[in-house]
Specification:
- The chain has 120 residues and is of the alpha+beta class.
- The protein is 38% helix and 31% strand.
- It is globular, with a radius of gyration of 14 Å.
Length: 120
């Protein structure tokens, strides 16, 4: 049974400006594991896409819970990838749920959609 659904869209230039203004922005958004992957990316544009995608996925997840960022922290939500590169989300408080996530990028935007299914 679907417990929640959320979607988020973010402008890549907004993320770029946040990174330039605040040298710690990515550390506020990314978990330690995500930050390791972020640092491995050589291409500056691809780094912004990665960060924007994670930002959108975490916002979409928070919306799907009905809580939003504030009750949940960006650090509570970790975007992971499986062996095929497909994204997933890990959140300690939601281990008994199935969390489906899709992340996409265009030239100007990153978009993520999250569906939370209750496991019986």
């Amino acid at each position: 049974m679907i417990k929640g659904i959320g979607i988020d869209i973010i402008e890549l230039d907004r993320i770029q400006k946040s990174v330039e203004r605040n040298g710690r922005f990515e550390r506020r958004i990314l978990t330690k594991n995500e930050h390791v992957l972020f640092e491995r990316i050589a291409n500056k544009r691809r780094k912004i896409e990665f960060l924007a995608g994670r930002f959108a996925a975490k916002e979409a997840f928070a919306k799907a819970t009905g809580k939003g960022i504030g009750e949940l922290s960006f650090q509570d939500i970790e975007v992971v990838t499986d062996d095929n590169g497909a994204p997933g989300i890990k959140v300690r408080q939601f281990q008994d749920s199935t969390i489906l996530v899709s992340i996409t990028h265009s030239r100007d935007y990153a978009v993520a959609q999250v569906v939370i299914e209750e496991n019986n």
